[in-house]
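Worked example 2:
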Amino acid sequence: VDIKRTRKDIKMVKKKRRRRSLLIFILTIFIAGLGYAGYVGYHAYKAVDKSYKKVNGREGKSEMREKPVYVSSDPFSILLLGIENYSSKYDKGRSDTIMVATFNPKEQTMKLLSIPRDTLVRIPGYKKDKINAAYAFGGKEETIKTVEQFLDIPIDYYATVNFDGFKNIVDIVGGVTVDVPFDFNDINNKWKRFYFHEGPQKLNGEAALVYARMRKQDPRGDFGRNDRQRQIVSAVIDELSTPKTLLKMDDISDAIGNNVETNMKISEALAFRQKYSDFNSSKIEQLQIKGYDDNGRVYYFIPDEEKLEEIKNILKTHLEIIPEQNQTTDATNRTDSNQNEQQ
């Protein structure tokens, strides 16, 4: 560390690092935490209930739906947002982690799509900009509308999480084991250095935070970081699905209630958990938007229109909005990375 850094320099670096702390443990809350709260007791139920927030004050789901969606029987989607809240009352913050998950009850599978925060999109009522700016313009409501327009699918549920509860949740479940893709080291916002070695490694909350936020040392940039975030999501889901977690649900529920906002009721999450109790990370298929970098005056990620249409069709099929597509579509999306790199 350069000892000649000014206080201003250090504050700017710390702010940038916090902005890269894009952790998305909301998915674990839906899949395990909220559902288990109904089993454990009154304290957990009430603690998690604090996280419930309607969208625009209404009970209904997406305006793209003609009728209500029930998580215990219907395909549904969830928009997952990791939010950095700024101290200024004039700045809503930005959604620095954006994921969309869809669940199909017949297949009992989930599709999980990461949307790069620098993706250039049309923000309804505004202009073309990076997708993470939608939250700054109009909060979760504007982000929901932007994602619905971008992917052409209804967003039935949303959840936002701030980063304060992340390390606590990981530590409560006893840490997570991830498969580190390559050797690297990085520091947290207190300048403590952490070392990661290629292969399986168990991480506590502080180490998991550093592991998930690292960006510049990854040759794949945001895409590599998104992969590491999804690794942690899957690991936490598996930890929360073990019987030992039931003994810790009061602590987990407190962390959820204090750091999460969602329009999914506990009763809905409980119904999901009871019906799909065997759901785990092995039933999650991870999708990726392909495209190219625009390194002009402002950096943007530009989606490949043809590949984006394939992603849209995969999600629409999974939500049963359109009939099941030819199975080669999924295969093409999963195997075309080499061809895309050659282009």
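The two ends are 39 Å apart (CA to CA). Confidence is low (pLDDT under 50) at residues 1-31, 86-90, 327-343.
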